[in-house]
Design brief:
Elements (H helix, E strand, L loop, with lengths): L2 H8 L15 E3 L5 H10 L3 E7 L5 E6 L6 E6 L12 E5 L2 H10 L8 E3 L11 E3 L11 E5 L5 E6 L13 H18 L8 H13 L4 H19 L1
Parallel strand pairs: 1-4, 5-9
Antiparallel strand pairs: 2-3, 3-4, 6-7, 8-9
């Protein structure tokens, strides 16, 4: 059976349905000592977003890694998962060697950089080969470390994202996006209805983040402006 046929037969979403954003924002990390875990992640430079308690039996701490849109929660009375049972949560970095050196400088025990011989495995060290990916491919060079309870983290080096997988949030990437937006907006503006450039730029960048090509993103941005004008009228 063809893959497209299988996909069609198992799909429950109507072809004309509008996609609903489902943003992963929090991952629960089970720990035995909330204060110890909080100190560990703070030592990595993770931001403390909240620290709530209700008596002696319930406490939740939310923290966010630098540059991440997803946070973690540590707590007491929060989960029945065994402390240290979460393995292989990814932390994406632009340069795995630099990220490893930074963590070591912060007192964290980090593995050597490695790649996989026969496919990704997040639990244990089976299949790891010393050194970065020989071809220098994105998504293929790694390092790992653990928190005090044994929850493990994987540093994954991503230099260039595959289409549809979002874009980096570094200055160079954002600069390129803004330049793309400026170029396509310049072509659109002479025949466009009256609008503020910020609305067009925002729609363009959101579309690019969702995997659209620059040309597709420009069409989405134009539709966004037209839709805003109709709604206003």
């Amino acid at each position: 059976m063809r893959s497209t046929q299988m996909r069609d037969e198992h799909s429950t979403q109507p072809p004309t349905a509008v996609a609903v954003d489902l943003k992963l924002e929090v991952v629960v990390i089970p720990v035995s000592d909330v204060d110890r875990a909080k100190r560990f992640y703070e030592s990595l430079g993770w931001r403390v977003d909240a620290d709530f308690a209700n008596g002696k039996d319930w406490r939740v701490v939310q923290m966010t890694p630098p540059g991440s849109q997803c946070s973690i929660m540590l707590g007491k009375g929060l989960t029945t998962a065994v402390p240290g049972s979460v393995h292989g949560t990814f932390l994406v970095v632009d340069d795995v060697e630099a990220a490893r050196a930074r963590l070591i400088g912060q007192g964290v025990g980090v593995s050597e950089v490695f790649h996989f011989a026969d496919g990704l495995q997040v639990d244990g060290t089976k299949g790891r080969v010393s050194g970065p990916d020989p071809k220098g491919q994105s998504y293929s060079s790694w390092a790992s470390f653990s928190d005090p309870d044994g929850n493990t983290w994987m540093l994954q080096e991503v230099k260039t994202r595959l289409p549809g997988r979002g874009l980096g949030r570094d200055v160079a990437t954002l600069t390129k996006l803004l330049q793309e937006a400026e170029k396509h907006h310049g072509a659109y503006e002479p025949t466009a209805p009256k609008h503020h450039w910020s609305g067009w730029y925002s729609a363009f960048i959101v579309a690019r983040e969702r995997g659209k090509t620059p040309e597709e993103a420009a069409k989405d941005a134009a539709l966004s402006i037209e839709g805003a004008r109709v709604a206003k009228d």
